[in-house]
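Here we describe the complex-level prediction in full. Unlike the single-chain runs in Section 2.1, the two entities below were treated as one system.
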Amino acid sequence: MTPPALHWRPATELAAGLDAGDLTSVELTEAIIRRCDDVEPHIAAFLQRTDERALTGAAAADARRARGEALTPWDGIPVAYKDIFVTRDVPTTAGSRILERWVPPYDATVVERCSAAGMPLFGKTNLDQFAMGSSTEHSGFHPSRNPWDPARVPGGSSGGSAALVAAGAVPWAWGTDTGGSVRQPAALCGIVGAKPTYGLVSRYGMVAFASSLDQAGPLTRSVEDAAALLSTAAGHDPRDSTSIRDGAPNLLEGLGEGIAGKRIGVVEEFGGEGSQPGVRARVDDAYGRLERLGAVLEEVSLPSFEHAIPAYYLIAPAEASSNLARYDGVRYGPRRVATDIVAMNSKTRADGFGAEVKRRIMIGTYALSAGYYDAYYGKAQKVRTLIVEDLKRAFQRVDLIVCPTSPTTAFKLGERTADPLSMYLSDVYTVPVNLAGVPAMSVPCGTSPDDGLPVGLQIIAPVLDERSMFQAAYAFEQDLGWAESDEGRPNL
Amino acid sequence: MGIDRAAVDHVARLARLALDDDERDRMRAELDDILGHAGRIQALDLDGVEPTLHPLPLVNASRPDEITPSLSQSDALRSAPEAEDGRFRVPRIIEDA
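The structure predicted for the assembly as a whole is:
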């Protein structure tokens, strides 16, 4: 069997090639540029490419390596960022016209740390505006498409990053996950996507959507790459007061320890008709595989999870309505002319925000307005406690919990945009995780027998037990062997 | 409980969104639908349940009060739609006496 083309190889393998001198970062970057040129017309995943900057960074990395001064094993491996991470001197839009032509004066901590590790910035990727959506159809610029079937969405909101990684166009990319925005596109595109414990990765320089839920997460083609990328950026940052003070783990350590004897919970409430038959079939296979790998499966009950979507769609819009107050036409972004400041603010916002963003600002403002605070936001915060308690109870019996990442495979463009509520309900398996702040990741488990599209298995872990989560994902991935096979690559 | 047009107008004003008539009509129906679904949690008996304000038990983050580098005035102003004399310029807020 011939080895896969350069642009398909996982970052950890590329790092070995760079280290051995079989490959230069400039050669790698040029291969990535050619691949992006080929696939971008089909998937429309970028908002901005930074080819020249990446090549300059690659040449500098090669020079460092030649002097024996490589910064890290990943020095010279390019990385793409969802266009919600601010990047100094590179325009950042959060997918919205209201930030069109904004050039940030600073780097997000995630960007700063990956740059310090030597990874050249390779473009800014498409998203639903301000990360509000599950398909990239709410991008203020254009929708992106799924490399497995360009008539379908790549998922969202980190859909551009997911589509590029799945298409073998970039080795790895960053996304953000407020209610599933890393895990769901990872599942729909057949790649790995992880949302760490809330507070593990700094939110500094991540354009804020819902501050108590937002977390950055890696999108990669292998579990090992996800562990490497996450470990690079994790750790305390004094500029984010919610970032966890403990030292960040190196998740590559002990990755191959296996799951023999691990107790894994299967969510009783997620068993029935909630998912497509093809998704259920693949996920059931995955449960069987985990058992064969030595895990002990048992059912766990999480009754409060049924209230997660209602609570999420109160909390997230409420926080968004507050966070997005800053887009007022005063300090950055476009401004609509008006004679007084309130009219200027209101016209600028009405023209700059897309329909979904306006909808959520309206929901959030209503839920926080006088007379409704206790009934909506206050009650939703109490529901959050029920979810936290349910998970704590379950994690007294099991080490990890598994379920589908998404109830369906990738849906067609336009299928859900007319009915916002139907789009919201597609987040049913992912939002409870954000409400509880625990880590979770999606790992591919093959394609659905119904439509040949990828299915993701979600693995949920207790707070700060990313290590167990990655060990299980790695054991599963290695045993399945799908991602490394031809079957695991879309025909694009 | 339904959302009426007056509520939409009020909330749009609070949110500083100049919505047109079509948007207001659509928003009324959508808010009704979404808040109807989300409002289901109102039926739950949650007396005695503490709200979760943050997923982790973090205490207040404090740091020594030391001056560290921050954005320069020119960097802070460089994306402003209008700036003047080192400040953001906005339309008139207070009428002349």
